[in-house]
Amino acid sequence: MIGPIYCLISGCTPQIHPERSQWEESVYEPVRCEDKHVPGPLVEEAIKTLVDDEDEEWMDNVTVIGLADNRGKLIGHQDKSLRAEKKGFDVGRLRDAPILSDHCYVDRDSWEYGDILSKTKRKPTVYHVSQGVCFMVLTRTLAIMRRATDGQLTPQRLWRLAMILGRDTGFSGTGIKDIDYGFNVGQAYYPWTLPGLYHNDMCKLESLGDLELVKEAMMLQGGYWVWTAPDRFPLGAPGQHARRPKDEAEPSNAPNPAKFEMLPIEALTHIMTLVSLADIVSVASASKRLQHKILGVHSNTNTIAREWINANAPWYKPYQRDEEETHQSDDDGDSIVSDDLEEDDDDDNEDGAIPIADWWQYLKRCLQSGSMKNRKRIWAVCERLEQKADEFGV
């Protein structure tokens, strides 16, 4: 068995799921130390229910990106892939190299040898992605990469950058060399399911006394958020915000109001996009009039939250999942040459955007969401990748 294979966009690995199974089994054994903690019933239940099918599906849904051979087929065989890599590439050749991608899935038996299988109608093609001129990304990260870079960082550019910089295969490497993935989950051959907690600390979560609190601690404090699907927008229950909140009564005019209080809401909204959320609350608490203007009128609060997200946290903007746009294949399931993978210019319009009735409540849920925390991290990785690609002229 080889070491874990990481997505070069997210720094995540589908290997976490079999590792999680081992983690669930081993967690019942007391750790070998003076303070021998054993998980209580709440911790045991949290371990079993922390991950659902959605998180597993996002890890197992992968895309291979690699070099095409002279027949226009993606080089997937291990020996051919390694030979092609050893020939070396210069930047000029990289620009002209024909790049293919193929939608694949993780087969546990093949995965142990660094291989993934294509999703074709005929016999699946085996791609060697642990070394050589093919690599793997989690399919749903391609949509994040496109949005984070306004479509400037394409799968082709990512491949060329990976070939120039190489992959980080060191003790704690999780992707492309010299790229900060924001949260290091690499640990020799075994990624950590809860990279933020040791066994004893996890067992002590039993004292929280509530299953949801234990799961929340594992997700945020324990660092499990780094493995969660980064497109689970916390929209709330259906119909939860169908009714518009009532506006607060406008306070009576105070004598000699400050000029800042008298600013029109359009000016206040612009100012609020320039400060932190904590500052927005502080400004609102400065006077009854500001409290009413900023947080007491639903339409004002809604606009401020929406514009704040647009200006400061575009990764929170909710979209319908568009993974079908991240790969293309012909009727037989064969890959299409990379130039056909370029996205439409109108993709970054509001097409696919999910309407939100209450942006302020949605923003508060985003701040508590492990999925959105991971989305923010991956978004930042994509921006670093684009910056590095520009730096190397890729």
From TrEMBL:
Family matches, as SUPFAM superfamilies: F-box domain (SSF81383)
InterPro entries associated with the record: F-box-like_dom_sf
Ranges of biased composition (kind: Basic and acidic residues): 321-330
Biased composition (Acidic residues): 331-351
Chain intervals for the UniProt region annotation (Disordered): 236-258, 321-353
Annotated signal sequence range: none
Designated name of the protein: F-box domain-containing protein
Species per Swiss-Prot/TrEMBL record: Athelia psychrophila
